[in-house]
Amino acid sequence: MSPGLDRPLRIIQAAAFPFPSAQGSQVFVRGMARALGRRGHEVTVVCYGHGEGEADPEYRVVRTPRIPGYHNLRAGPDWIKPGLDLALAAKIASIPADIVHAHNYEAPIAAYMAKRFTGTPIVYSAHNTMREELPTYFGGRIKKGLARRAGSLLDRAVPRIAAHAVALADETKETLHALGCQHVSTVGPGVDFAELEDVRPVQLPEGPWVVYAGNPDAYQDLPVLIEAMRQLDGVGLLMVSASPLDEWSAMGLPKFKAVQTSDFSEVKRLIAAADVAAIPRAVCSGFPIKLLNSLGLGVPTVVAEGSARGLPGEVVFPNGDAAAMARAIHGLISDPEGRLELGSRARLHVKRACTWDARAAELEAIYARVVQH
Questions:
Q1: Tens digits of per-residue pLDDT, 260-312?
Q2: Are the CB atoms for 218 and 193 separated by under 8 Å?
Q3: Chain centroid, CA 284 distance in Å
Q4: How crowded is residue 49: how many other Cβ atoms within 10 Å of its Cβ?
Q5: 360, 35 Cβ separation under 8 angstroms
Q6: What gap in Å lies between CA 110 and CA 91, rounded to an integer?
Q7: Per-residue pLDDT tens digits for 132-162
Q8: By 3-state DSSP, what share of the chain in percent is helix, strand and coil, each rounded to 5?
Q9: How far apart are CA 104 and CA 24, in angstroms?
Q10: What strands lie across the sheet with 10-14, from one edge to the other?
């Protein structure tokens, strides 16, 4: 336990989304909750009333009331979520805690409403900025412009309600300082490396194969990947997501396979079966957790400049440049020996430097400072 802590903490992980689920923020919260639980803390994930899969024994889950017929797993605004966020605030206020660690944007607002009754300090994790993400959920120049302005207002207001902000990357730390956050630390995501060992790849049709594993939302810049794949004769694209992939199946790629699953065991086997992983997202103020998964499985990953994090195993291309992405993929596929060596270095780095147990110790030190303040 970190210096300054003489007892385990009661920690709420406030998550304004379905949980568990195979999407990035949900995977982040699950890994954090498990690791903090292993360190002896009493961890409660407070989330929406639905999800996919089972929770873990290291933490407990408290849900908002389930809405009949509502099963949305996708990110982004809808008409139901404001009611769910009010219910989330009520749940947070009902649970005695030393710290509320709130994620994304709706959860810190809910935590702030609860704080008026409980006084519990808030730690905020910035998974993104709203100026960056909110416009991707709207079509048309006017709507996108209004969404960008609304996102900027949220960026200036929400992070400052926390006693301490946690950035996933140093660039985001600088952004949060500029937005007026006085206390900011960088703590990246991690992996439970034991989950990435002894993974048996699925049997794919004759390759080579490029894999994209993640949600298909607009901010992922998947059209860049599709255009790159059109330039690669004989190379297949494997898309894996918990969300439907019908739109991408209809793109007409000659060699394409879509798998809809939220089973992480199956996702790992599919990633491990590919020759190369791909992340085309150009703007990412957080940290793409899919990057750690692919590198931890020893699969070199072609990454847009905006999502790159300087890790061994990344091959970086300029944002939005499909031709450059295609060249990077081709370079890896045409050099099997170099690709395997790059994948081995990537896997070793993730094992040594990117585990959730190491991240949990960093978070614990932040919690200790906030509790003592």
A1: 998 889 999 999 999 999 999 998 877 888 999 999 999 999 999 999 999 99
A2: no
A3: 10
A4: 15
A5: yes
A6: 9
A7: 777 777 888 888 888 888 878 878 888 888 9
A8: 45, 15, 40
A9: 11
A10: 60-63, 42-47, 10-14, 99-103, 122-126, 164-167, 184-186
